[in-house]
Amino acid sequence: MSEGIEKHTRSVTPWRLRLRARLRRPLSFYLTALLSAAIVPSFIFSVIILKRSTDEQERVVTSLLKASTGSVTRVVERDIDGMLTTLKVLSTDSTVEASRLEAFYQRASSALAGTDSNLLVIDRAHNQLFNTRVPFGAQLAKASDPTSIEGAFTKGEPLISNVFFGKTAQKWVYNVYLPILTPQGNNDYLLTLTQDASSMTKAVNRDVLSPGWNAALIDGAGNVIASSVADMPVGKPFFMSIVPALRVGIGEAVHDGVEYRTVTEFSLLTGWKVIAWAKSSDVDAPALWSYVWLSLGGLLFAGIAIAGSAAIARFLAQGVKLLAKDAHLLGQGRPIAPRKHIIAEIETVSTALSDASQARRKAENEIRFLMREVAHRSKNQLTVIQSMLNQSFGAAESRVDFAETFRKRIAGLARSTDLMIANAAQGVDFHELAQNQLQPFVPDDPERVRLSGPPVRLDAQVSQTLGMALHELATNATKYGALANGRGVVDLRWSISEGAFLIVWKETGADIAADAPAPRKGFGTMVLERMLGMALDAKLERIMHPDGIEWRVRISEEKLNANLSA
User: Fold this and answer.
1) pTM above 0.90, yes or no
2) pLDDT tens-digit series, residues 238-293
3) What is the full DSSP assignment across 259-326?
4) Using CA atoms, how far apart are residues 356 and 51, in angstroms rounded to an integer?
5) Burial group, residue 533, by CB count within 10 angstroms (0-12, 13-18, 19+)
6) Is there a contact between 420 and 428 (Cβ–Cβ < 8 Å)?
7) Using N-to-C axis directions, what is the helix angle for 460-479 and 344-395, rounded to 10°?
8) How far, in Å, CA of 476 to CA of 348, rounded?
9) Would you say residue 111 has pLDDT above 70?
10) Which among 156, 208, 155, 151 has a CA at the least distance from the CA of 175?
11) How far is Cα 555 from Cα 364, in angstroms, rounded to an integer?
12) Cβ(181)–Cβ(203) below 8 Å
């Protein structure tokens, strides 16, 4: 066996040996590797899914912000467009004349009552002819937005101003200018609607924005008109000076070392911009925290898994050590008790080792018993052979006759021994024993030898004795009885009744002369009368019929398998 192992070791290539040596690790290492193989791909997959989810959320938020800034732009343009419509309606009033300004003032005041707008009439000298913020005829200074006024007069079309500080209102305001023609056909006046910049605060309300985002309405000069940030000064440049240079859409900016995300929308009607912004750190915070929690959760679960694998490995290692100890005991032939273990498979192996220990002890006991049995049976066989020798020698008429008779008896004994060895544990079936012993004597017509009876298992010693008896009966039948002619019949029947095994050997059709002397007792008769009677306590009865002999043998049922039940 060791030679085979050495050959197998030599047949393994060196690189495989090196690989096995490098892969030799504790059980905890492979359990941890297994858990890592299960956790790491799941973690990577979760990161990918989270990244896709955050990207998608960012796209959704950006789309919402673009929609929000677009909505703010439309609100602003709708208000400005409403102001232009109001101016156009007022410009059609017939009282728009220098001589009827008071009447026009009254009509305009009534029309604008309840609104946030006020009407001004400005001439080319930038004088305010009236302003509905104050009573008609009040002393008014020149208009506060000369640049836009000159632009409106020059272009001769409506113009929306930037935010400026109104001297009359004493507030930050913006104006919408509309040049009008006098009855003489000269555009010497501007109808102007003015509104406080604070009126635009509703357009950039924080409620329309995503969390963490702010918005501001910026005029063409980059000054703040309105903002969702309460403390952001109106009329001052937006705090990110580069914003006016940004293109429309999504962008990024840096101010005082802080990174911002921006979304910009431009109004063609007003020339103003709506800007939404948020710190990049605030925008990225939810995704960052998601990654942090995912990482912490992954580390926590990995720690729990590794701790669990270490505990399992410890339990397994403890169980393996106990199994190794049991295996050592098994090698020594010592008894092993099954162990209880929390790992079912280890408990199964422990039970198997315990069963193997018991099986080994049983096998060793059987071997010792068989050795004793072999010695006992060898002595018995030697005694039987010696008796066969004596009887054969005494009955033989010549050396040839002695040799042939002795050889056949030894062959019959050998057949019984073969059956005994082949069926040592289960016992020898009597039908099989009878077939085996009578087979050499069966004539060409097999119907002349009949066997009938129920299945009966015999002890080895009983089968050997009965086999010799059947052999001698068949030998006598062949020489002197029913099988000595061409018509005789041997009928062998057996049964079990009333706690006894009954065997009936009956010969019919034998050639027996009426005046023939009583047959002498040969070896077969000695076997039946002495060995069966003495060894098995059998009750024998011999009956002579006119055409053959009949033997009746009764054996106690306990003797049939005494050793089998031991």
Assistant:
1) no
2) 887 655 444 567 878 888 888 888 888 888 888 899 888 888 887 777 777 777 88
3) EEEEEEEE-TTT--EEEEEEEHHHHHHHHHHHHHHHHHHHHHHHHHHHHHHHHHHHHHHHHHHHHHHH
4) 58
5) middle
6) yes
7) 30
8) 61
9) yes
10) 151
11) 33
12) no
For residue 125, pLDDT over 80 is answered with yes
Mean pLDDT calculated for residue range 307-313: 75
The rounded Cα 156 to chain-centroid distance in angstroms is 79
Helix (H) or strand (E) holding 137: none
Q: What's the whole-number average pLDDT of the chain?
A: 78
pLDDT of residue 559: 76
pLDDT-based confidence at 566, cuts 50/70/90? Answer: very low
Query: Chain-centre distance of CA 549, in angstroms?
Result: 80
Q: For residues 176 and 163, is the Cβ–Cβ distance under 8 A?
A: no
The residue count of the chain comes to 566
Q: What one-letter code names the amino acid at 166?
A: G
How far is the C-alpha of 98 from the C-alpha of 26, rounded, in Å?
A: 105
Q: Kindly report the CATH number that applies to the domain delimited by 57-281.
A: 3.30.450.20
What's residue 451's pLDDT?
Answer: 94
Q: Quick one: which H or E segment has residue 120?
A: strand 117-123
Per-residue pLDDT, 244: 47
pLDDT of the residue at 417 = 61
CA distances from 8 to 4, 13, 19, 109, 453 (A): 6, 10, 16, 112, 56
**Higher pLDDT among residues 560 and 232, named by residue:** 232
pLDDT tens, 58-73? 777 677 777 777 888 8
Q: 3-state DSSP helix/strand/coil percent for the chain, to nearest 5?
A: 55, 20, 25
Of the two residues 164 and 326, the one the predictor is more confident about is 164
Query: Residue 159 in 3-state DSSP?
Result: strand
Helix (H) or strand (E) holding 92: none
In this predicted structure, the answer to whether residue 120 has a pLDDT above a threshold of 70 is yes
- Tell me the sheet residues that pair with 274: 217, 265
Structure tokens at 312: 């399992």
What single letter denotes the amino acid at residue 135? P
Residue 311 has pLDDT above 90, yes or no: no
Distances (CA, A) of 345 to 71, 319, 320, 348: 69, 10, 11, 5
CATH code of the region 375-560: 3.30.565.10
Q: What is the pLDDT of residue 137?
A: 84
pLDDT of the residue at 522: 57
Helical H runs in 1-100? 2-11, 14-23, 27-91
DSSP E strand stretches across 126-223? 128-131, 159-160, 164-166, 171-180, 189-196, 214-218
Domains of the chain, by residue range, sit at 57-281, 375-560
Alpha-carbon gap, residue 320 to 332, rounded angstroms = 18
Alpha-carbon distance 65 to 59, whole Å?
10
Q: Are 277 and 240 in contact (CB under 8 A)?
A: yes
